[in-house]
């Protein structure tokens, strides 16, 4: 199909260009004239949609924009989450009076009829409020560990699923804490080229990690 027709019928009605207010696509990170391929173009061609107005043609693009932003943030947060998991687990090892299994049982069983504090053990010589606060802190830490571990595993699986070797190299370099200029040197490409690879990689990560949410609509 003629690319100019796709630009007029698809890009001008896409939230990625602010519904035609800008010629720079937020999803691809470049001028629409430089875009070589687009998921929405493929859908338009496959279904031979008639031109429509407004946002109805793109029910999944706004969630897609958010998914790309989330995937990019997950990449930036990876090393911080890894370090946080190690730190939280270290604290967990230091204090065994509230083992993880006990906290899990407390979460499943809920609080007693007298409230959560009544269900907690009382420390000898310490006011019960101190025991309650410590248990609540440990519970938050444990939940944070689970949340971070889930994100880390999801991100690592998405990176492993990348098909393009250069995209995967960029992603793995970022996970290892490398700077973009270092990754460019490793790949023997310019900084501009590695930025282009990175944008494509983040888009593919977003699909790998959040495809279901994009199709259903990402939660607020």
From TrEMBL:
GO terms, molecular function: DNA binding
GO process terms (BP): regulation of DNA-templated transcription
Pfam families per the UniProt record, alphabetical: GerE (PF00196)
Keywords of this entry: Coiled coil, Transcription, Transcription regulation
Domain of life per record: Bacteria
Domain HTH luxR-type: 165-205
Coiled coil location: 145-172
Protein name: HTH luxR-type domain-containing protein
């Amino acid at each position: 199909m003629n690319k100019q027709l796709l630009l007029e019928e698809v890009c001008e009605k896409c939230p990625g260009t602010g519904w035609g207010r800008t010629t720079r696509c937020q999803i691809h990170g470049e001028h629409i004239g430089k875009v070589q391929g687009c998921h929405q173009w493929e859908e338009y061609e496959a279904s031979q949609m008639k031109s429509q107005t407004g946002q109805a043609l793109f029910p999944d693009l706004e969630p897609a924009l958010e998914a790309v932003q989330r995937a990019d943030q997950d990449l930036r947060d990876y090393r911080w989450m890894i370090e946080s998991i190690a730190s939280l687990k270290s604290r967990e090892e230091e204090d065994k009076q509230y083992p993880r299994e006990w906290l899990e049982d407390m979460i499943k069983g809920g609080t007693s009829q007298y409230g959560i504090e009544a269900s907690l053990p009382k420390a000898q010589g310490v006011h019960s409020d101190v025991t309650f606060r410590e248990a609540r802190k440990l519970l938050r830490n444990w939940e944070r560990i689970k949340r971070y571990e889930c994100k880390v595993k999801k991100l690592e699986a998405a990176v492993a699923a990348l098909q393009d070797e250069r995209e995967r190299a960029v992603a793995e370099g970022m996970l290892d804490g490398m700077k973009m200029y270092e990754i460019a040197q490793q790949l023997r490409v310019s900084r501009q080229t590695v930025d282009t690879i990175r944008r494509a990689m983040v888009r593919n990560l977003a699909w790998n990690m959040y495809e279901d949410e994009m199709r259903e609509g990402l939660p607020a």
